[in-house]
Amino acid sequence: MNTKNISSRILSPFLIIVVWVSLLVASTNGQQQTDAPALAEPPEAVPPDAMPQSPLPLVNPKIVVSKSGRKLELYSDDRVIRTYRIGLGLSPIEDKVRQGDHRTPEGEFYVCVKNANSKFYLSLGLSYPNMEDAARGLRDGLITKAQHDRIMSALKGKKRPPWDTALGGEIFIHGNGSQSDWTWGCVALEDAEMKELFDAVPLGTRVIIEK
Length: 211
Fold this sequence. Notes:
CATH superfamily of the largest domain: L,D-transpeptidase catalytic domain-like
Distance between the termini: 119 Å
Structural class: alpha+beta
Strand content: 15-25%
Strand order of the largest sheet: 3-2-1-8-4-5-6-7
Low-confidence stretches: 1-8, 14-21, 23-52
Largest sheet: 8 strands, mixed
CATH topology of the largest domain: L,D-transpeptidase catalytic domain-like
Oligomer: single chain
Number of domains: 2
Radius of gyration: 38 Å
CATH architecture of the largest domain: Beta Barrel
Helix content: 25-40%
Number of strands: 8
């Protein structure tokens, strides 16, 4: 018998088995690769300008109130960093003239009181009446010369001016809601925003109230 033919007959089934096993292994590996879970892509970083920025610390802080716009803007180094909706006095349009007129005053003031125990959540007292108010009050006969001089002395010392004259006083920026004009002449914010503002500004902060 031809030895070559015998070898071919023996090897042929063996080669078939080897090829079959190889195909099976390759198929199994392919299936494993297909079923393997894909790695999760790393989360994208939040751009810095999309994250809320804390208002602290402030540089040369300033508060600007727009009565007609019903908004309060908080400035740091001449840049607006917060804008809050506000409510005003029951008579919101005209400038304040006297005690009990329920008007929100206009002009330039400073924070002269910080009250953490206000009945309106938190409050920042403003230095109303200012020098212009005192001069007007004296001219119109609403206050005496002595009262005028007391107001001027307090303002020059950056203290709280007298709030017990016919010009009125106790004008605050405070909490308890901004959805309507409900105060007796104050500026009202929502409590969460009042907390942020209260924590952010120090005594002496400049406050400008515009028409």
